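Structure ticket #2291
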Amino acid sequence: MKKILPIVLILTTLAGIGWLYQTHHAKKEGTLVLYGNVDIREVNLGFRVGGRLSKLMYDEGDKIKQGEVIAQLDNEPYQNQVANTIAQVNSLKERLKLKEAGNRPQEIAHAKSLVREQEVATANAKQVFQRSQRALLIMGISTQDRDNAEMVYQESEARLAAARQNLALLEEGFRIEDIAQAKADLAQAEAALASAELQVKDTVLTAPSEGIILTRAQEAGAILQSGATVFTVSLQHPVWIRAYVHEPDLGHIHPGTLVEIYTDTQPDKPYKGQIGFISPRTEFTPKSVETTELRTSLVYRLRIVVKNPDEALRQGMPVTIKLIADQSAVPS
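Resolution: structure written out below.
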């Protein structure tokens, strides 16, 4: 009995050591490791309008900040267009004021005097015609003279009607359709002015985000078409990691999962990252992933956002991604 007891204790100790090793080994083996590459966005910058390139403020390798002016076109042709459009707008504004105000009082007064003058002439022609009618009855005038008097009377009445109609039009002012047309013409000119002013602004090229100039594609004096690339810029934010995962491992990750990112140049300095996107469909892993197993496998692409990037992360750099075991222990 005394000999059996030490043996039991030894076996128990060995079992405990084995259990601890298996548990530690299982956790170590259960840590999901992924492989990917740094994916930094690049953007080709150019002008929305064409023209002669006047200035370039930066060269390849220079750092730029968001909102900084990095190039300019000669804006004189566009400034001239703005001045011409402003003149058109002012002219159409005055024309609209004229139509909304109506005719001048002097014009209406003149039209009234013409009406009164024609009324007197018509009354006189009427009296002449009536006398010629009576004279014809007693054979005092010829039929031709009576007809001439009637013609003069009818012409005078027509001129009176025309004068009255002209007075009514002057007093009423411009038609609603004329005013609406003047307003539409003014709105069109104002839109053209806004477009011309925008073109002047577009002769200045600003940095959309902080980054580093990779390529300077043009030089001062060049005549550019709209959209021609002037600079190619590597944006410093955000920095992404493009990685791939097998379908059986999808259960271990989800958008928001925290990870650590390791590079070969600084293996002791992990970067913090967070999974932001997992593709809903499978694809073949690109050859840049150097593991033999993954290169021939159907996998799911995912994107990891690096939280603390620096200049050591370069476009296309291979990295290793490891899931953080305790997700709640890491601040977001």
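Closing remark: The two ends are 59 Å apart (CA to CA).
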